[in-house]
Design brief:
300 residues; Leucine rich repeat containing 34, isoform CRA_d; Leu-rich_rpt; 11% strand; LRR-containing_regulator; alpha/beta; 10 strands
Length: 300
């Protein structure tokens, strides 16, 4: 890095705002928002090289416990420096790296540093194409890490192997409370991943939120999930939107909702529920269920 390297003006602007908060005595637990989709101030997207400078500044900032650098241009270079930051900045509990063109190699670097990190609670990797290879490194990380509570890997092009690996490791991991596995790249019609997730839900009693949008779940798949929900006592939020569930699948969901008192939100948007499916659910919610707070559906 050349000595003449100048700090990104967007980063400089945000840091100046933080300095003002410090002067006012508002410095405790600050989340630094340097997201590239900010439309309120002029934005010069943060690159991997910019993040190198930022990480140098942040490594000793004890009052920063959250960092949002989503929608920038970090790429794998930035992922390298993000991993270094997670090694040295031991107050960071929230890190948002979503949509930064991070690939499998960058995903591997971040996953491996979390083997030893004990402070990060929430990591967002949404939209970074870490693919099946990167997903496998994150699944392996969850076998070791016992402090991360929320992991967002939606739209990361995960494969069947890594989705099954996540389902398998979550039978043992007792720390993760929310996981987003939206839109994996699945080529099978047998719904193997949904079968494994169903098995996981029978054994896991810590997971609170599960996102399975665009998993090609059909009626047999929702049956697997509903069978598990008879035994699960922790899941409160289930997202199965944008799948291939029809009104026949609602028979299984309506039945489990008669006895499940844990689920509070179910997202069924963009499935083919139709009037018949809506009627099944309506009858159950009217007569048997008092715990569900929100049932989301569009294009039914």
């Amino acid at each position: 890095m050349e000595k003449s390297q100048k700090i990104n003006p967007f980063i400089l602007h945000i840091l100046q705002e933080v300095d003002e908060e410090i002067k006012k005595g508002l410095a405790a637990g600050i989340t630094l928002n340097i997201a590239g989709n900010n439309r309120l101030v002029p934005v010069e997207r943060v690159t991997g090289e910019d993040f190198w400078i930022l990480s140098k500044i942040l490594k000793n900032c004890l009052y920063i416990n959250g960092l949002d650098v989503g929608y920038n241009l970090l790429c794998d270079v930035g992922a390298y420096y993000a991993a270094k930051l997670l090694q040295k900045q031991l107050n960071l509990i929230y890190l948002n790296l979503m949509f930064n063109d991070i690939g499998p190699e960058g995903g591997e670097l971040i996953a491996k540093v979390l083997h030893k990190n004990r402070t990060l609670k929430y990591l967002r990797m949404t939209g970074n194409k870490i693919e099946n290879k990167g997903g496998m490194f994150f699944a392996a990380m969850l076998q070791i890490n016992s402090s991360l509570e929320k992991l967002d890997l939606g739209d990361c092009d995960l494969g069947m192997q890594s989705v099954i690996a996540f389902a398998t490791v979550l039978t043992q991991n007792q720390a993760i409370k929310a996981i987003n596995l939206n839109r994996p790249i699945l080529y099978s019609e047998q719904e193997e991943s949904t079968v494994h997730v169903g098995r996981m839900l029978k054994e896991n009693h810590c997971l609170v939120a599960l996102h399975m949008c665009k998993h090609d779940i059909k009626n047999s798949g929702i049956q697997q999930l509903c069978d598990a929900l008879y035994l699960n006592s922790s899941l409160r939020y289930l997202d199965v939107s944008c799948n291939k569930i029809t009104h026949d699948g609602m028979v299984y969901l309506a039945d489990v909702l008669k006895s499940n008192t844990t689920l509070e939100v179910i997202d069924l948007s963009f499935n083919r529920i139709e009037n018949a499916g809506a009627n099944y659910l309506s009858e159950t919610l009217t007569s048997h269920n008092r715990s569900l707070k929100a049932l989301v559906w569009f294009y039914i």
